[in-house]
Amino acid sequence: MSEAALPRRDATVPAKAAKPRRARPIGSESRLVQILLIAVSLGFLLLFLLLPLISVFVEAGARGWSAYRAAITEPDAVAAIRLTLLVASIAVPFNVVVGVAAAWAIAKFEFRGKNLLISLIDLPFSVSPVISGLVYVLLFGAQGYLGPFLKANGIEIIFALPGLVLATVFVTFPFVARELIPHMQSLGSTDEEAALTLGASPWRVFFSITLPNVKWSLFYGVLLCNARAMGEFGAVAVVSGRIRGLTNTMPLHVEILYNEYMSAAAFAVASLLAGLTLVTLALKSLLEWRYGDAIAAARHH
Q1: Residues 62, 276: Cα–Cα separation, whole Å
Q2: Phi, psi for 244 (deg, rounded to 5)
Q3: N or C: which end of the chain has fewer CB within 10 A?
Q4: How many domains, the chain?
Q5: What is the tens place of the pLDDT at every residue in 134-184?
Q6: In this protein, which residues make up the domain named ABC transmembrane type-1 (predicted)?
Q7: Are residues 186 and 103 in the same domain?
């Protein structure tokens, strides 16, 4: 047979492709890896979260119940507690109303400037609370842009309750909206459109369909917003002036007591603040246990 009759082997023919490796299913890691991951997570939580929290309560009760009661019932502490609850009771409902409106607009409508609105909602996450407090001082302070006008009309914002509320609203605003936006987007608008077709008014659609569908996301947003409102320090410290008994919230009062070497009183007030947080967490856990199936269904709807 002649050489020309033999089939030529093309040097450019690629080698036989290797079989792709099968993806490893999630959760198939070895028992050792699972134990190590769980141990690292629990160790971190124990060392950086649980032990400091326990130490706060231990130090608070180190001098007995009488000293603890005296620390949390003295006039400045009572004023700080009342002011903290008042600021939170104003800021949280405001953020709920505005957050629901913003989330509804972003999830249900298409309009020019939508991306800008989303960026503005996220703005408090990227701005230092101290800077946000300073901005309000520059706007509404005695030497600020609007300060002379406000002073001439007898309006006081900085070093007063309105300034504390404004600063708290700024730093806590994203929590409600950010919990609601992805949930509303996942739900779509089918239910609302069907209700409108059947003749329901927009307000009835909102209160009968939209709000019940997102109630658990709204609840989580309120919890996060309330916890941050009661524990905010940086922005409130700038706009409050730290006037003892007048504009000090609980975090500011704890700092003043600690700086004055009144550690027992500082830990007592700090334990009260931590206790409010634990009550909120307990309420969240109770509702999750009681309505766990409904919450899971709403999240996967």
Answers
A1: 20
A2: -65, 130
A3: N
A4: 2
A5: 999 999 988 888 988 988 888 889 999 999 999 999 999 999 999 899 888
A6: 81-282
A7: yes
